[in-house]
Amino acid sequence: MYLLALPAFNDNYIWMLHDGVEATVVDPGDCAPVLAALDRLELRLAAILVTHHHQDHVGGLAGLRARFDAPVYAPARESIPGPCIPVAQGDCVQAIGARFEVIDVPGHTRGHIAYFHRPSASTEAPVVFCGDTLFSGGCGRLFEGTPQQMHHSLQRLAELPGDTRVCCAHEYTLSNLKFAHAVEPDSAELSEYTRWCEQQRSAGVPTLPGRIATERAINPFLRCGVSTVIDAARRHGSTSDDPVEVFATLRQWKNEF
Ligand code: ZN
Ligand code: FE
Predict the structure, then answer these.
(1) Cα angle 153, 72, 66; round to 5
(2) Residue 112 C-alpha to ligand 1 middle, in angstroms?
(3) pTM of the model
């Protein structure tokens, strides 16, 4: 299987997984980069996976439906334009010979879902398509959900195997890492990862996919139980060690950062 990040708009990625014949795309906010990639690689579109209802994730559906008869899988708790197959926690999507487990990750939106794929070949690492829930070094804004929901959703993602490739829908990494550095200024792992990401960006290539193990080590939003993060949150208004309050404080601090 091949995994591609198709750049769209300013900083979106539309992820494509293909086997050389058929492709699955995730969150096609724009159909143009998807159609261009399908044509260039001579692939047939076999399925579309949608994580949440925002326009930059669904805006390309009509254009893709006009050319392909591919099923669109979408969160059961959200309304997505056009005919969709609603999926939620516990459901499994089968496409291009692969299985995608649906994980409910509410917070950014009320019905946001993620798709987890564990390849059958043991030489390949698992993949998670997490939309706007987990970003490298950060997380999505809380538009519709509560800090409690988002914290829980991020914990679910953090529990995936450490080698899981994290396919986020935006290239927000460098700005997230500036904030992460403000939270944990003494983290050597964070400094090392930041240097690597800066090199990637100056070479014009994505910092993504990330790795779950890396995110556990450097992403403050996955580290709400770690003493350095708890202490930093206390300096920004948190009054307890409760991970949800630490998370809510970090999220608010980041909004104003
Ligand atoms: Zn969004
Ligand atoms: Fe988005």
Answers:
(1) 140
(2) 9
(3) 0.98
Percentage of residues in the chain with pLDDT exceeding 70? 100
CA–centroid distance, 230 to ligand 1, in Å, is: 27
Amino acid identity of residue 149, one-letter, is: Q
pLDDT tens sequence across 63-116: 999 999 999 999 999 999 999 999 999 999 999 999 999 999 999 999 999 999
Q: What is the dihedral of CA 101, 105, 111, 116, to 10 degrees?
A: -20
Ligand nearest to the CA of 169: 2
State which residues have CB under 5 angstroms from ligand 1, the bound ion. Answer: 54, 132
Instruction: Report pLDDT digits (tens) over 106-135.
Output: 999 999 999 999 998 778 999 999 999 999
Which helix (DSSP H) or strand (DSSP E) does residue 8 occupy? Answer: strand 2-8
How far apart, in Å, are the Cα atoms of 143 and each of 146, 203, 213? 9, 33, 27
Can you list the positions of beta strands (E) in 10-155? 12-18, 22-26, 44-49, 72-75, 85-87, 92-95, 98-104, 113-117, 127-131, 134-135, 138-139
Chain CA centroid to CA 155, Å: 13
- Judge residue 90's burial from the number of C-beta atoms within 10 Å of its C-beta, 0-12 exposed, 13-18 middle, 19 or more buried: exposed
Query: Beta-carbon neighbour count of residue 227 at 10 Å?
Result: 9
Residue 122, pLDDT score: 75
* Contact (Cβ atoms closer than 8 angstroms) between residue 205 and residue 228: no
